[in-house]
Structure to design on (1059 residues):
């Protein structure tokens, strides 16, 4: 028999202070019943002797000190899991949102998860073809990686993420990914865009969606990514599926975290975010990966919008320190009408070199990518120089790089939202663009590679 | 021991912090077991009857009323054969054993000793019955791996006459030697314990005189670290801190490498675990793992254990230093350690210092780095051991005014400044040659003179001067174009570019380029600078920069980093070509002038 307390002492923001309790445990799940029969859920943030500090997931609107009845359930927040979750839409706390029936769970798991033992991890090294050249060619995604998209307000990250979800395959297999999608505080339209896109392409049949909209309680967002990752772990490690997890938008999640921290009057870290933001984010991002002896995998693509496009803002900054690289969207490219507006220079995939090369993509992939990076970097420099000096004053080499940077943006980076390039097409395109540059400047590729791959494109052009 | 086993009761749980009462008799920094789940914690504050405890495991499900038992012992590590090739969590629990017990996910309350209790080691006694020994003296050795002779030492503060010592096969708990000290006897095993927060003693500190050879050109040539030295690598994410740390762990000529993954990515530790057994030590040809110890407390593992992990790492490192080895410790990243400190400090409701970090952060950082050094070890044989410590720092946004960076720079002697703009240009290692520094040039000068070359120091200074000048001239060159510069300036820019692209830039993923020995570094550098000197003379003779830049030997300079260590004579051949081609240019020019005259 679960004891019921009517001893709420204080309500502040999303927090409740409940007095006179006994046997309450840290992180325990809590139910708060309001006079109308409405039940809110929360968890214990702190217990101090006979008082418990409870954080409500759905906010404290309507909670009164006098009439709220609080029950401590003796377990953490759990999610019921089953294969039937595929094709369904849930709210941010795991309840059905699509009018369908409740899931009959095969198993229930605590959404907090447990850290994967580094010893038990298997290294991610299988190339994922997303069909997007700027990613596949230069900032390659591999299975089990966590590669966030750093975006800004008004940039087309939703389109890019949807395109990746649609097109991602592992080369040589026709295997498709199961998609777990968690929306945190995004608008109705943006959420609808994803749902409609998944429906249109049939991807919905292998997708599980958790949706917390901007209008839903902010605090619910704290639980949403953990719900999604618990579902993903079940699909990956129990049902042996390859899972792509899309989390959008982490910035909203962090703001909810800040709200709670402020309500608890904690000493704030940078920009008011709590000092444990790094640790908290890591308990989300580190749930990506592969496990030795298990067939499935979890690949994460979180979306982080950078407030004011500032990469050094605590949220993108701490994210970058945990994730294995980042794809950065750029406003200047977007203004030029280039989709996807991926700025490849500050973008990075730390696992790229493990996922490409002989037997995975092609032996020249790494060198070609480095050459394209170096060429584009120098081309951008030449462009800046041209602004000061005028294009005419550039040296012949600088002119070549200037042109290269332009063509690179317009042909390599730019592609259609439905354009799905194979890795061979991406590599061939790279070699074709290198023809713009003087051969003596191609220091990052080997002479025999120039011989082998450049000629082909010349021959094809003739 | 009974009087120190204090039992108390939990009053408060807040994240990794538990407060218990009834703890008046407990001692600061004693290890406690929390609740029936026996979670491991450490006392970090005592107020009257109340003790604040940082718990090294997830505290979900704990509540007031549950018991807390003090073990009466500070947090300690087990030191003995079996450490090498291990991978530990922050409090020295072997992760492979945890997996055997708990599966792929780390659950709570798992108790596994740091050293295997079953395994038998072949002990070869070197001390004899009747020997008078003191703390630090070597009793015998155990061949721990193909690369490491584990020296079994008398623990510090113990001395006596050996009354029994036997060679043979032992577990770490069996007695291998007995000492008689007056009326007392000491049974010595292969294992000793040491509290992690207490530096292991040595006889005296001595000055570092030898470089830690890393095979990384920018480090060895321009910003060397001494054996027994300290270095700090701050940089924004994506600048390649981790790759540098891995490169050092792989190639540094230390006899023992301790790699502490402190609050970093899980996959990175997996990478090390998979790669190190495959990589061969360039000197012995044995797998690198045979000299490596890993301490891995990834970012999502409990935050308090992250705080402990660097102490666990450095205590193990000191133990091997005490055997007379050169040990290198890499900590990636000290920022995560500092954040763990900050989190605990916040929960203790201490008054925050800068950026919310506790006021004692600089003191703790200094204490950590001061445990590095070159020392005369305990024991009568006066052997020398060295412990080099290299800490990565991850400042927010790459901002070097970050308190953790500042606290580190105050104590370390080498600063490798990683910058993201270099990384964007794919110039790796992205160490800025203008802002980095090493304070060891002077103490290592003698070594370079005798072991590398008399000319080494001169070459280094000339290279740095050229790079400095380039930085000053580059802005002007950008505005007026290189055509407007004098021939000498254009040559200087070209040499600087060659230094940057052909010497400083190094590809960690290329089989040859990943490691460069000192002789090869010297030859590469002397060819580049030699070419510069000859070219300057040639300019005086009327040769143009265009002619010099078009020489075919330029190609050899560019490719010389890919010349394998086994073909060192190739560099002399390149030098021959440089001399010949420049001479031909000069002769042609002088000849033409003579004809004209």
């Amino acid at each position: 028999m679960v004891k019921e307390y009517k001893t709420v002492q204080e309500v502040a923001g999303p927090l409740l202070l409940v007095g006179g309790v006994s046997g309450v445990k840290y992180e325990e799940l809590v139910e708060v019943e309001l006079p109308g029969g409405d039940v809110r859920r929360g968890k214990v943030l702190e217990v101090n002797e006979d008082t418990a500090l409870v954080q409500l997931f759905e906010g404290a609107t309507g909670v009164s000190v006098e009439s709220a009845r609080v029950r401590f359930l003796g377990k953490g927040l759990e999610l019921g899991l089953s294969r039937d979750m595929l094709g369904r839409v849930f709210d941010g706390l795991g309840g059905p949102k699509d009018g369908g029936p409740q899931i009959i769970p095969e198993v229930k798991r605590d959404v907090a998860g447990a850290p994967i033992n580094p010893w038990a991890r298997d290294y991610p090294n299988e190339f994922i073809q997303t069909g997007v050249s700027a990613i596949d060619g230069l900032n390659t995604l591999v299975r089990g990686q966590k590669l966030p998209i750093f975006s800004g307000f008004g940039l087309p990250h939703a389109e890019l993420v949807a395109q990746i979800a649609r097109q991602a395959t592992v080369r040589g297999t026709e295997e498709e990914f199961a998609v777990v999608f968690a929306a945190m505080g995004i608008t109705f339209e943006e959420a609808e865009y994803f749902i409609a896109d998944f429906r249109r392409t049939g991807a919905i049949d292998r997708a599980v969606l958790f949706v917390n909209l901007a209008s839903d309680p902010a605090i619910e967002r704290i639980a949403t990514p953990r719900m999604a990752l618990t579902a993903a772990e079940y699909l990956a490690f129990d049902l042996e599926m390859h899972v792509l997890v899309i989390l959008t938008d982490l910035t909203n999640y962090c703001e909810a975290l800040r709200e709670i921290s402020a309500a608890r009057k904690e000493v704030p870290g940078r920009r008011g975010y709590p000092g444990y933001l790094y640790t908290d984010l890591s308990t989300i991002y580190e749930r990506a990966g592969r496990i030795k002896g298990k067939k499935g995998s979890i690949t994460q693509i979180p979306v982080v919008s950078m407030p004011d496009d500032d990469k050094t803002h605590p949220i993108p900054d701490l994210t970058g320190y945990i994730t294995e690289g980042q794809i950065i969207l750029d406003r200047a490219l977007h203004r030029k009408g280039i989709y996807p507006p991926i700025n490849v220079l500050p973008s990075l995939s730390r696992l790229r070199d493990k996922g490409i090369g002989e037997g995975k993509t092609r032996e020249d992939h790494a060198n070609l990518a480095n050459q394209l990076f170096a060429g584009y970097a120098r081309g951008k420099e030449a462009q800046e120089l041209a602004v000061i000096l005028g294009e005419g004053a550039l040296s012949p080499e600088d002119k070549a790089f200037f042109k290269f940077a332009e063509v690179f943006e317009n042909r390599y980076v730019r592609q259609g939202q439905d354009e799905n390039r194979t890795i061979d097409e991406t590599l061939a395109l790279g070699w074709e663009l290198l023809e713009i540059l003087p051969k003596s400047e191609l220091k990052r590729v080997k002479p025999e590679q120039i011989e082998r791959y450049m000629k082909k494109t010349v021959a094809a052009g003739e | 021991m009974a009087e120190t086993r204090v039992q108390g009761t939990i009053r408060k749980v807040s994240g990794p912090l538990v407060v218990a009462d009834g703890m008046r008799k407990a001692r600061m920094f004693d290890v406690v077991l929390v609740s029936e789940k026996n979670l491991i914690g450490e006392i970090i504050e005592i107020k009257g009857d109340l003790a604040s405890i940082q718990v090294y495991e997830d505290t979900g499900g704990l509540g007031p009323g549950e018991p807390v038992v003090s073990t009466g012992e500070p947090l300690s590590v087990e030191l003995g054969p079996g450490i090498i090739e291990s991978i530990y969590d922050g409090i020295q629990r072997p992760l492979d054993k945890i997996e055997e017990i708990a599966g792929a996910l780390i659950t709570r309350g798992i108790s596994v000793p740091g050293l295997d209790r079953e395994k038998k080691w072949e002990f070869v006694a070197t001390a004899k019955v009747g020997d008078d020994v003191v703390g630090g003296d070597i009793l015998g050795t155990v061949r721990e791996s193909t690369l490491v002779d584990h020296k079994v030492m008398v623990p510090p503060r113990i001395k006596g006459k050996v009354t029994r010592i036997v060679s043979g096969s032992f577990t770490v708990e069996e007695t291998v030697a007995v000492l008689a000290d007056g009326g007392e006897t000491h049974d010595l095993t292969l294992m000793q314990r040491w509290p992690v927060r207490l530096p292991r003693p040595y006889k005296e500190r001595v000055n570092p005189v030898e470089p830690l050879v890393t095979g990384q050109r920018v480090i060895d040539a321009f910003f060397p670290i001494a054996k027994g030295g300290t270095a700090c690598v701050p940089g924004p994410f994506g600048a390649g801190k981790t790759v540098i740390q891995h490169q050092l762990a792989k190639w540094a000529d230390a006899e023992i490498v301790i790699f502490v993954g402190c609050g970093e990515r899980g996959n990175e530790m997996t990478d090390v675990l998979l790669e190190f057994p495959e990589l061969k030590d360039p000197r012995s040809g044995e797998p690198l793992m045979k000299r490596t110890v890993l301490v891995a407390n990834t970012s999502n593992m409990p935050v308090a254990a992250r705080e402990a992990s660097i102490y666990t790492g450095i205590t193990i490192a000191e133990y091997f230093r005490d055997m007379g080895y050169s040990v290198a410790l890499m900590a990636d990243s000290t920022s995560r350690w500092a954040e763990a400190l900050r989190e605990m400090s916040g929960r203790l409701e201490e008054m925050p210092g800068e950026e919310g970090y506790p006021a004692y952060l600089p003191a703790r950082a200094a204490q950590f780095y001061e445990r590095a050094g070159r020392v005369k070890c305990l024991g009568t044989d006066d052997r020398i051991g060295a412990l080099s410590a290299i800490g990565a720092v991850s400042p927010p946004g790459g901002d070097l005014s970050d308190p953790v960076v500042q606290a580190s720079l105050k104590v370390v002697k080498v600063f490798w400044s990683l910058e993201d703009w270099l990384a964007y240009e794919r110039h790796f290692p992205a160490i800025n040659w203008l802002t980095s520094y090493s304070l060891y040039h002077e103490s290592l000068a003698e070594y370079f003179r005798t072991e590398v070359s008399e000319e080494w120091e001169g070459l280094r200074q000339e290279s740095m001067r050229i790079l400095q000048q380039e930085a000053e001239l580059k802005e002007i060159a950008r505005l007026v174009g290189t055509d407007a510069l004098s021939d000498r300036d254009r040559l200087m820019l070209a040499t600087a570019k060659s230094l940057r692209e052909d010497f400083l830039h190094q590809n960690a993923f290329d089989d040859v380029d990943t490691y460069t020995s000192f002789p090869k570094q010297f030859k590469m550098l002397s060819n580049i600078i030699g070419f510069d000197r000859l070219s300057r003379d040639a300019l005086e003779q009327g040769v143009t920069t265009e002619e010099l830049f078009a020489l075919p030997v330029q190609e050899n300079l560019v490719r010389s980093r890919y010349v394998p260590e086994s073909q060192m004579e190739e560099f002399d051949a390149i030098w021959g070509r440089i001399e010949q081609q420049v001479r031909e240019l000069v002769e042609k020019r002088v000849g033409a002038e003579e004809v004209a005259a």
Chain B touches chain A through 72 residues (CB under 8 Å). The mean pLDDT of chain B is 91. Chain B has 16 helices and 26 strands.
